[in-house]
Design brief:
Penicillin-binding protein 2B; penicillin binding; Penicillin-binding protein 2a (Domain 2); Beta-lactamase; 7-stranded mixed β-sheet; alpha+beta; 4 domains; membrane; 5-stranded antiparallel β-sheet; elongated
Length: about 725
């Protein structure tokens, strides 16, 4: 027995010595097997770049969400009285089906599936249906107290403003890749066009853990940091965009048109300050998404009489404008084709000036005899018609200038037959507003490296041409202003108190879609009504184009009413917001901020409180290392000033904070704050004076004043002035 056991011990010793010296068993490297068993790779997800307005307001960003995870391996449970894995897959599947977009049977399959070798996985997930879960939904699922159901922090694309320039911004979604990972991918609009710039590069972390995923003692972590995507700043002004969205929503509900489109632009630069259309959709839920087309740039229209603006400009520039000469209104016949004025019978012998103010089609036809067909088309091309503007958006249409027969030149002079895009009309109007200098429209202000703050791409205004002289532009503005102020003008309903408006109405036939090359007729609900205007008339600061297709009008209502409701509201509010009329803007008391960096937080706090502003200390106090606002900026009394110091962060009360202040605090503190809603802070998930640890999630709920206070609707009087009906 001694010899036998001694032999076995000696054989075992030789085997152990061989394994230690060679590191292999049956030809397999033990170190590699151990690394495969205990070595883990974790993905550090890169944040998608933000989309912001011209002032840094958030339009789209990644925000905190949750990922649904089910622990299914019984080994996870140590104490049977406190199970940590799914005990009842059938019950769990039935409950979860009430919360996520997945059938109960599919959930059950996932909860009971096996690995290829027949073993039970430690945990399972639920694909797209189990991702991007909100804090509210997570809380609701947790209340069900399902065994084995847990959540991991995740990120989702968040659009805090709801339906806000939705066809311009588009949306991005989490998509499963071939390797099983999930990436946020732009599917539409700017999110799609600039997906490469917005998409960051994921990092990784390598470490050793046990079978339950816990980090092994003394194991080393190797971290490759994630690189976040670039931030894109737009020319869009969030405040003006909100003016536009609210007004269009009100008109859309009241008149129920087939579609609407509107653009607000700065004529001095070509910057697009607002852009919207109806129907629209919510980019968070995609609710209401019927058409993927951005009508402003991708769809062509026959705009009607707004085009008369550029026929007039051509006549003046070529010395063929005779405002006091008379012509016979009513009808005009060319080679057997007859066009008529919108009242069919005309107004008798009237001057060309009155004819323009009344939006007479026959005035344009008679003027064209002086201008000449080829000259008109040449100037239309100088105004950019029949060609793309070059706006920094994909899918732009060019439109078509019809020149096949003589009558097409005539109809083109007043905006029928030939096709245009809304953005072409806006670009052409910049030449009228900007003393003859035509500016190319654009929506991207700059692209910024989110890590370094370096500007990757910086857009500047581009002059597209000078189709007319300064003198001609000034004269056109004066005549356009007369359509608003003259008794004969069709645009009287577009007047704004305190501002002089210049512009041109449009009422256009809508082509049939049956291929018959004819137009819808019948009643006043079958037309495209529009207005292309600017203000102040002597030195325009804004151009606004509004078009409403097939509104449902009452018997006493005219087509200009829904258009004017949008135009006057947006133009007046925007001009006041931009402080165009300083005398209309109330004076508020301000104080200038000094440079506090390097000073004591306590001393700065006392000084700021004495100045009438509220300091917010981020950190333990001590030396200030960053501040917002920066030095020399003037702020109003009662504003918040953020002072960052080293050390742990104690949470303040966010009560009544604006979204902007909350975003500044989130950026400077580096805390994981999930912002829900818009407006002002109503509640926070972590109470004030709590010391926050790294990575601790905080949910802050905001509400708009409209959600907080419900007021009865205000009935507005409407006027029938400015009616314009199409020629027969």
């Amino acid at each position: 027995m001694l010899v036998i056991y001694g032999g076995l011990f000696f054989a075992l010793f030789i085997r152990i010595f061989y394994i230690q010296s060679s590191g292999t068993v049956n030809g397999q490297q033990l170190e590699a097997r151990a690394a495969a068993l205990y070595g883990k790779d974790a993905v550090l997800t890169a944040e998608r770049g933000k989309i912001l307005d011209r002032n840094g307001g958030i339009i789209a960003e990644d925000t905190l969400s949750y990922r649904l995870v089910a622990v299914v391996n019984p080994k996870a449970t140590v104490d049977e009285d406190k199970p940590r894995h799914v005990i009842d897959p059938e019950k769990t599947a039935k409950v979860l089906a009430n919360y996520i977009s997945m059938e109960e049977s599919e959930i059950y399959k996932i909860l009971t599936k096996k690995l290829a070798d027949g073993r039970t996985p430690y945990q399972v997930e639920f694909g797209v249906a189990g991702r991007s879960i909100s804090h509210e939904l997570m809380t609701a699922i947790k209340k069900e107290e399902l065994e084995g159901i847990t959540f991991a922090s995740d990120s989702t694309r968040y659009y805090p403003n709801g339906p806000f320039a939705s066809h311009l911004i588009g949306f991005a979604l989490k998509e499963e890749q071939e390797d099983g990972s999930f990436h946020t991918v732009g599917k539409m609009g700017l999110e799609y066009t600039y997906n490469k710039e917005l998409t960051g590069k994921n990092g990784s972390m390598q470490y050793e853990s046990d079978i339950f995923g816990y980090l092994l003692p003394n194991s080393e972590k190797m971290v490759t940091p994630a690189e976040n995507g670039d931030d894109i700043y737009l020319t869009v002004d969030k405040t003006i965009q909100n003016f536009l969205e609210e007004s269009m929503t009100d008109v859309y509900k009241e008149y129920n048109p087939e579609s609407m489109v509107a653009v607000v632009a700065d004529p001095k630069t070509g910057e697009i300050l607002a852009m919207s259309q109806r129907p629209t959709f919510d980019p968070d839920t995609r609710e209401g998404l019927d058409s993927w087309n951005n009508i402003v740039i991708e769809s062509v229209i026959e705009p009607g009489s707004t085009v008369k603006t550029f026929t007039l400009a051509t006549a003046i520039e070529t010395n063929n404008w005779h405002p006091n000469a008379f012509y016979q209104s009513g009808s005009y016949t060319l080679y057997g084709d007859t066009i008529r004025d919108h009242n069919l019978r005309g107004w008798g012998q009237i001057t060309y000036l009155e004819g323009f103010q009344r939006s007479s089609n026959t005035a344009m036809a008679n003027m064209l005899e002086y201008i000449g067909n080829d000259t008109l088309i040449d100037y239309f091309k100088k105004f950019g018609f029949g060609q793309k503007t070059g706006i920094d958006l994909p899918g732009e249409a060019s439109g078509t200038l019809l020149t096949n027969n003589p009558i097409e030149y005539v109809t083109s002079s007043y905006g029928q037959g030939s096709t245009f895009t809304p953005i072409q009309l806006v670009q052409a109007m910049t030449a009228i507003a900007n003393d003859g200098e035509m500016m190319q429209p654009y929506v991207i202000d700059k692209i910024v490296d989110s890590a370094t703050g370096d500007v990757v791409k910086d857009e500047k205004p581009t002059v597209k041409g000078n189709p007319i002289s300064k003198e001609t532009a000034k004269q056109v503005r004066e005549i356009l202003a007369s359509t608003v102020t003259s008794e004969a003008g069709t645009a009287k309903s577009f007047a704004i108190e305190g501002y002089d408006v210049a512009g041109k109405t449009g009422t256009a036939y809508i082509p049939r879609t049956d291929g018959s090359r004819s137009y819808l007729t019948g009643n006043k609900n079958n037309y495209l009504y529009s207005f292309l205007g600017m203000a102040p008339a002597d030195d325009p600061q804004l151009i606004v184009y509004v078009a409403v297709k097939k509104p449902k009008l009452e018997a006493t209502e005219v087509g200009s009413q829904p258009v004017s409701e949008v135009f006057t509201s947006v133009m007046q509010n925007s001009l006041k917001y931009l402080n165009i009329n300083p005398e209309d803007v109330a004076q508020v008391e301000t104080t200038k901020i000094k440079d506090y960096i390097g000073e004591s937080a306590e001393g700065a706090k006392i000084e700021l409180e004495n100045a009438g502003v509220t300091p917010i200390i981020i950190g333990d106090g001590g030396e200030i290392i960053a501040q917002y606002p920066e030095k020399d900026l003037a702020i109003t009394k009662g504003s918040l000033v953020f002072l960052k110091t080293e050390g742990s962060v104690t949470l303040p009360s966010f009560e009544n904070w604006s979204l902007r202040n909350l975003l500044v605090y989130k950026m400077m503190s580096g805390l994981s704050i999930e912002i829900v809603g818009e407006g002002f802070v109503e509640s926070q998930s972590v109470s004030e004076n709590t010391v926050i640890g790294e990575g601790s999630p905080i949910v802050v709920q905001l509400r708009t004043p409209e959600e907080t206070y419900s007021a009865p609707p205000i009935e507005e009087e409407t006027s029938s002035d400015g009616e314009e009906l199409p020629q027969d």
